[in-house]
Amino acid sequence: MQEATERAGRSKRSRRWLIHLFPLPALLVYAAFAIYPIFSAFTYSLYDWEGISRKGFVGFQNFVTLFTVEPFNEMFWNAIKHNLVYFIVEMVVQNGIAFGLAYVIYRKIRGSGVLKAAYFLPRLLSVIIVGFLWKLILNPNFGALNALLTYLGLEAWARPWLGDPSTALMTIILINCWFGIGFAVLIFLAGLQSIPEELVEAARLDGASGLTLLRKIILPLVMPSVTIMTILTFIQAFEAFELIYAMEGSQGEPFRSTDTLAVYFYRLAFGGPSGPGSVAIGLGSALSVILFIIVASVSAISVFLLRKKEVQH
Questions:
Q1: Are 309 and 223 in contact (CB under 8 A)?
Q2: Nearest to 127 by CA among 79, 161, 175, 82
Q3: Would you say domain 77-312 falls under CATH 1.10.4160.10?
Q4: Between the CA of residue 40 and those of 36, 127, 175, 229, 287, what are the distances in Å?
Q5: Which of the listed residues 23, 64, 97, 184 has the most CB atoms within 10 Å of its CB?
Q6: What is the pLDDT of residues 80-131, one digit of tens each?
Q7: Residues 166/85, Cβ–Cβ less than 8 Å
Q8: Do the Cβ atoms of 272 and 280 come closer than 8 Å?
Q9: Domain locations in the chain as residue ranges
């Protein structure tokens, strides 16, 4: 009997390696659709291209062209400036408002469940649909926003929101904040609800209340959620494409005032800077590698710094 038990145990241990095969399908899919495109983009960036035909090896010349040759360098720095503005405004407006709303819901006001659903509803829509609907709302001739401003006697505020270079980018960013605020609320609310009630009650008994309680107790304890939202916001801001494309097209109109790195990449790789039909696969691949390096490096540094802050608290 003991010998049979030992034999069964050995057989079970010998088959234990099979459990490592279960992640294999997911790893193959990830390698095919994530890892391979990254390496192929880097390879493409090292070659000269004529249309979709690969020519000779040029090393890092495509990168040098992006940084030093006009008009590519001007468009690159213009696009990266817009990405930075995108990130800063989203951090302040979207995440600031989202944290405030999450804190209100956390305080268990009446109807908080309905509020959570209402804030998240825009996220259920396609980005393309959101862009199309807001283009109708912001239309300078028959749009609802200008009509409302006129009705309220604020005709001076009415303007072509998407046609004015001074307002186009900010308008799109604020629309994106409206679209993404529900997801941010859920992340912050999850962090707030993970705080032990005993800790909050103990702080109140010690005299902490209002802003003091929020700043000294609650904010340090929700730093993991802040870390997550900071990284996700940065990635989303530097990969901003769909909403801009839906509302302004691939040229970053008007006058490149809504151009971002992702839109510029699309234009280089599929539309070309020299007019319809021209492509620059080498330059587009070089730009995609730069974008990947920016997102990966800044995200890694941010995680390190914010995690360190969490440990300190």
A1: yes
A2: 175
A3: no
A4: 6, 28, 34, 30, 13
A5: 184
A6: 999 999 999 999 999 999 998 888 888 776 666 677 777 788 888 888 899 9
A7: no
A8: yes
A9: 77-312
